[in-house]
Design goal:
The protein has 4 helices and 8 strands; from the N terminus they run βαβββαβββααβ. The protein is α+β, with helices and mostly antiparallel strands. The chain has one domain: 7,8-Dihydro-6-hydroxymethylpterin-pyrophosphokinase HPPK (Alpha-Beta Plaits, 2-Layer Sandwich), CATH 3.30.70. Strands 1, 2, 3, 4, 5 and 8 form a 6-stranded antiparallel sheet that branches. Strands 6-7 form a two-stranded antiparallel sheet. Bound molecules: ligand X6L and magnesium ion (MG) (2 copies).
């Protein structure tokens, strides 16, 4: 089987979290969206707002811009993950300190209703429900019909309301895909 085209039938819907806190953060996020959408087997269907967020984990670093995308893809979860890591490399990511500053971070959050726990990839992302900088943008892009939508919506509302999470809307962007989403 061709590794690049492992699926039959309708494309999967996946959600990807983006983060940057080095260099021209906004341009890096826009370049990442461009690379992702230009891939022949991935189409960006929704783009969240861009949020400026206080760093968590390792807090002595500059603020992040975070956002999320909804995509359609015919790649398998593992092939999508590997492609995201390749895009990080193309955008100059150098892994230095754990949880330290990065030009671009691309995390696979959800892939259809797939649950898996492998060394290379765990789905859903095991820590997404604890991270407001993921949940707030994710809520912008998640379908009403998604099984996690209510939970993500409530957590995101709480995070924005109490204001202690250090998340502010930076800007909203209009995304017009260069390619049509796949037929479904
Ligand atoms: C205790 C221990 C509490 C560790 C939190 C949380 C560690 C998140 C790592 C943690 C802990 C992470 C981003 C970030 C990072 C980002 C913002 C991580 C990995 N990435 N902060 N910190 N946005 N705002 O994308 O997510 S490092
Ligand atoms: Mg991350
Ligand atoms: Mg990552």
């Amino acid at each position: 089987m061709d590794e690049q085209f492992p699926r039959e039938g309708a494309p999967a819907v996946a959600y990807i979290a983006l983060g940057s806190n080095m260099g021209n953060r906004e341009q890096l996020l826009l370049s990442a969206i461009g690379l992702i959408d230009a891939h022949p087997n991935i189409a960006v269907t929704k783009v969240s707002g861009m949020y400026e967020t206080d760093p968590v984990g390792y807090t002595d670093q500059p603020p992040f811009l975070n956002m999320t995308l909804a995509v359609q893809t015919t790649l398998s979860p593992i092939m999508l993950l590997r492609q995201l890591l390749a895009f990080e490399q193309q955008l100059g990511r150098v892994r230095q300190i754990r949880w330290g500053p990065r030009t671009i971070d691309l995390d696979l959050l959800l892939y259809d209703n797939v649950r898996m726990d492998q060394e290379e990839l765990t789905l859903p992302h095991p820590r997404m429900m604890e991270r407001s900088f993921v949940l707030v943008p994710l809520n912008d892009t998640m379908d009403q019909s998604h099984p996690l939508q209510a939970e993500v919506g409530a957590a995101s509302e709480a995070a924005l309301l109490d204001g202690k999470e250090g998340i502010t809307l930076w800007k909203t962007i209009n995304w017009r895909s260069a390619s049509e989403p796949f037929e479904s």
